[in-house]
Amino acid sequence: MDFDFRPCKKTAIMGGAFDPIHYGHLAAAQTVFDRLDVEKVVFMPLGDAAHKHMEGASAADRYEMTRLAVEDNEAFAVSDMEIRREGKTYTVDTIGEIRKQNPDIKLYFIMGADEIMSLESWRQPEVLLKMCSFAAVTRPGYSNEAVKAQAERLMHKYGCDIRFIEIPSLDISSSELRQRIKDGRSIKYLLPKETEEYIYSHNLYK
Ligand code: ATP
Ligand code: MG
Predict the structure, then answer these.
(1) Ligand number nearest to the C-alpha of 139
(2) Which numbered ligand comes closest to the C-alpha of 16?
(3) From the CA of 104, how far away is ligand 2's center (Å)?
């Protein structure tokens, strides 16, 4: 389903592969929702062309796992905008399109510490950083000081707006979850039950 940004004055986008979605993503989104007072957090799974793990799930499965994980939360929504785009999708193009259609809304793009550290290697960072505000969330393995310093440096260099947001530390990654499934180890309590059941019933990540 596409998400209609028009009725919301203030929205955050949570981009990612969500291969699969886990409680680290959900805790980040909920904390941003509470702290930045946005009306919705929109989860936007990457399309297949932009994201290809040899062992990964298809865009359709990643979308469905994300939808199941967020459906009980009024604050959250899912958009298939990147999945529907043909060819390789870049964040700068996606945000650009949303901006063009909704010039007056306040938009945040949520990024984990690992992503904010490497943001300058993304496509056209100088353009992207001016298109919306950003929320840089903490993640185990990255010191808060390093993330704060990076946010400050980028704001100074590009004149952009980046909020530093401390979230509950959950040392969970999708790659670790995929590895556990492959090894036949449990993924219980690391992601929503509905998503876990979807993974097993569709025989993903084996
Ligand atoms: P992978 O291991 O496959 O890279 P991942 O767990 O990093 O998966 P992604 O889909 O790559 O998940 O991440 C989407 C966004 O969520 C990124 O901005 C990432 O930094 C952030 N994120 C993922 N896991 C966490 C976590 N445990 N705490 C905070 N942020 C997270
Ligand atoms: Mg990642």
Answers:
(1) 1
(2) 1
(3) 30
Residue with the nearest Cα to atom 31 of ligand 1? Answer: 112
- Residue owning the nearest CA to atom 12 of ligand 1: 174
CB of 111 closer than 6 A to ligand 1?
Answer: yes
CB 24 within 8 A of CB 172: yes
pLDDT tens for the chain, 206 residues: list them. Answer: 789 998 999 999 999 999 999 999 999 999 999 999 999 999 999 998 777 777 799 999 999 999 999 999 999 999 999 999 888 889 999 999 999 999 999 999 999 999 999 999 999 999 999 999 999 999 999 999 999 999 999 999 999 999 999 999 999 999 999 999 999 999 999 999 999 999 999 999 99
Q: Which ligand is nearest to the CA of 178?
A: 1
Q: Looking at the whole model, is its pTM more than 0.85?
A: yes
State which ligand 1 atom lies nearest to the alpha carbon of 23: 27
